[in-house]
Design goal:
The complex is a heterodimer of chains A (318) and B (368). Chain A is built from eleven helices and seven strands. Chain A is of the alpha/beta class. Chain A has a domain of 211 residues: Thiamin diphosphate (ThDP)-binding fold, Pyr/PP domains (Rossmann fold, 3-Layer(aba) Sandwich). The longest helix of chain A has 24 residues. Chain A starts with a helix and ends in a 22-residue tail after the last helix. Chain B folds into two domains: 181 residues, Thiamin diphosphate (ThDP)-binding fold, Pyr/PP domains (Rossmann fold); 138 residues, Rossmann fold, CATH 3.40.50. With 368 residues, chain B is α/β, with parallel strands linked by helices. Classes of the chains: A alpha/beta (318), B alpha/beta (368). Chains A and B meet through helix 5 and helix 6 of A and helix 3, helix 4 and helix 5 of B.
């Protein structure tokens, strides 16, 4: 059962991203895209350990997290198309996906910023004695920002119900981690701030799920924040639909073990073909419908330009 | 920037206080905070040293004792993250008040304020709101110097999505703080260190001084003087000096800088034809520049205008008393400029040669 569900999640995210890449050159998509292909396991694996009413904060490379947490696919594609039916009414684009109904808080294009927001959200949950937790996703680059360390310190100090997830794909745009950081073990840095955790490999999805569950349980029992560094790999370019090995900052050889051991293929091999084909057909249909929804939706009226700059008294559109 | 019209629902000139209850600005801030914390469980207060013995000049005194350390707490020295924390709390449904004993320290929080707080409602399509209050104090006097003295409110006026308020009296401090906490948007609440000593009428009951409405604090016919934050006090003293030489100044306190009630200012300037805007900040690209420009846009071609900005000298704030005195605007300087604007000649001194400003400065005894 779990494998079926996992396969559906993985296949769905992978195919949505591939479809975005395919459509991108037609210029229907009016927003820069940072594709999650190759990194899906981090979002899917950790989501598997969360409850439906838990909260997540993510980054501009957030398609996988948004979808793994049940964010609306048609609204996401419509958002990329700049349509009024988008999840942010065509005002946020690919980098600012949000779906409050699914506990997906807004994603940010400024590296590291949501770490503090997630920490504050966790404070609110703790203050209200809610049995919910926050999972906060960010990249290896974000761990160089001051806000990362400040947030870790505060979360540890207040024993906040938050799981920090460092999605380490080894690069900040085109610069490798070793060119930016003297100490490469990010999880150890978090531990030094009082946030214990582990460093895992995204290719080992079952271990990732198991450890996530363990940590989520500890957090829910009031043990304070936990940290997961997950090593992963971005197959495509930093921004845009293509591959970028021609740039010379990384090699195909470096990428090949990640691609050869692709988690999507791993899970598919564990399931029977007929079941997989059934899932694939359903997902393909869902994707066709989502893109059609985006295509057929109207652009925002010009009057939308000045709405939601400020709120009206005591009202907030849901 | 929101138009005054969009706030029509909540617009009303706050009635002049009928109470005879006198509080200091500090006490008014504390009272408003405690009142709202009692009324609304969602309100939390934090910042460097809010729970220490000095309690932010006394403005947070007694709060943690009454509301507990979960709702009132001192923070690590992490302005960037703590601002982000405030935003996350707000998105989760709390109403945080984040306090900075110096406005200069907001520079450590700019990313969160400008890129997140101001933007979230808009870039997430109206699905979130960020009802935070950032209390920030402008320092002055006794050698506060370069990094404890800046009035940087115009930075925040520039950015859509933020509101900015700079109350100058205890009455407005209480009413604006209540309005700011209840507001659905991020509010930068600017306090001036010198204003903290002011005493004035503050009714016991709750009341709000709403965004987007200025107050005419002295009616006059010859020249319009707008005083921002603590400069309001200096402007009222300047008006008294001007009275001695037969000039009748109208004084306006904008109270809210964003949304700005430019209508009230224009209405006055339409009659006087002369406008002086005095800010406790630099003039370049500042609040005074914005007001003068807005009035010029509105009234050019309708009547002759004389427009002047007064603010900090275009230098870093020095510490030596002689230089510091030269750096700041005061009642004398304002009155002289107003005289020049009205009479088209200079005046060296006023009959009483008031020492009002000096007396106010005396209220502050260092060290900070």
């Amino acid at each position: 059962m779990m494998l079926n569900r996992l396969y559906r999640e993985f296949y769905r995210i992978r195919r949505v991203e591939e479809e975005i890449a395919r459509v991108y050159p037609t210029d229907c998509i009016k927003s820069p895209v940072h594709l999650s292909i190759g990194q899906e396991a981090v979002s899917v694996g950790i989501s598997e350990a969360l409850k439906p009413d838990d909260i997540v904060y993510g980054t501009y490379r957030g398609h996988a997290l948004y979808l793994a947490r049940g964010g609306s696919l048609p609204k996401m594609i419509a958002e990329l198309y700049g349509k009024i039916t988008g999840c942010a009414r065509g005002k946020g684009g690919s980098m600012h996906l949000i779906d409050r109904n699914q506990g997906v808080m807004g994603m940010s294009a400024v590296v590291g910023t949501t770490i503090a927001n997630a920490t504050g959200h966790a404070y609110a949950l703790k203050l209200r004695k809610e049995n919910r937790i926050v999972a906060c996703f960010f990249g290896d680059g974000a761990t160089e920002e001051g806000v990362f360390f400040e947030s870790l310190n505060f979360a540890a100090l207040k024993k906040l119900p938050i799981l920090f997830v460092c999605e380490n794909n080894g690069y900040a745009i085109h610069t490798a981690q070793h060119q930016r950081q003297a100490l490469l073990n990010i999880q150890e840095k978090a531990a030094a701030f009082g946030v214990p955790g582990a460093c895992l490999d995204s290719l080992n999805i079952l271990e990732l799920i198991e450890t996530s569950r363990e940590y989520v349980n500890e957090i829910r029992r009031g043990k304070g924040p936990r940290f997961l560094e997950v090593k992963t790999y971005r197959w495509r370019e930093h921004v845009g639909p293509g591959v970028d090995f021609h740039l010379g900052y990384r090699t195909k050889e470096e990428a090949s073990p990640w691609i050869e051991n692709d988690v999507v293929a791993q899970i598919r091999s564990m399931l029977d073909d007929r079941k997989c084909e059934q899932i694939e057909q359903q997902v393909e249909q869902e994707i066709i419908e989502a893109f059609a929804f985006a295509e057929n939706s109207p652009f925002p009226d010009e009057t939308e330009l000045l709405t939601d700059v400020y709120g009206e008294l005591n009202s907030c559109r849901r | 920037m929101p138009t005054v019209k969009s706030f029509s629902e909540i617009q009303r000139v706050s009635v002049e206080p009928s109470s005879d209850r006198i509080l200091s600005y500090v006490e008014a801030i504390r009272e408003a905070t405690a009142m709202e914390m009692r009324r609304d469980q969602r309100v939390v207060v934090f910042g460097l040293d809010v729970d220490d013995p000095k309690a932010i000049q006394g403005t947070t005194k007694g709060l943690w004792e009454e509301f507990g350390k979960d709702r009132v707490f001192g923070t690590p020295l992490s302005e960037d993250a703590m601002t982000g924390v405030a935003i996350g709390m707000a998105m989760a449904g709390l109403r945080p008040i984040h306090i900075h004993i110096r406005m200069d320290f907001l520079m450590l929080a700019m990313n969160q304020l400008i890129n997140v707080a101001a933007k979230s409602r808009y870039m997430y399509g109206g699905t979130v709101s960020v009802p935070i209050v950032i209390r920030a104090m402008i320092g002055k006097s006794w050698g506060q110097g370069a990094q404890h003295s800046q009035g940087l409110h115009s930075f925040f006026m520039h950015v859509p999505g933020l509101k900015v308020v700079a109350p100058s009296t205890p009455y407005d401090a209480k009413g604006c703080l209540l309005a700011a906490i209840r507001d659905e948007d991020p509010v930068i609440f600017v306090e001036h260190r010198m204003s903290h000593y002011q005493k004035g009428i503050v009714p016991l009951e709750e009341y709000e001084v709403h965004p987007g409405k200025a107050r005419v604090t002295r009616v006059g016919r010859d020249v319009t003087i707008v005083g921002i934050s603590y400069m309001q006090t200096e402007c009222l003293h300047a008006a008294k000096l001007l009275e001695e030489v037969g000039i009748d100044a109208e004084v306006i306190d904008p109270i809210w800088l964003s949304p700005l009630d430019i209508d009230t200012i224009c209405h006055s300037v339409e009659r006087t034809g002369r406008l002086i805007v005095v800010d406790t900040a630099w003039t370049s690209c500042g609040a005074s520049a914005e007001m003068v420009a807005a009035v010029a846009e509105r009234l050019s071609g309708i009547r002759d205008l004389k427009l002047v900005r007064i603010g900090f000298a275009p230098s870093t704030c020095p510490t030596s008393p002689t230089l510091e005195t030269a750096f700041y605007p005061n009642a004398q300087k304002i009155a002289k400029k107003a005289f020049n604007l009205t009479e088209e000649r200079d005046l060296n001194s006023f009959p009483s040669n008031s020492q009002i400003s000096a007396e106010l400065d005396e209220a502050f005894k260092g060290p900070f």
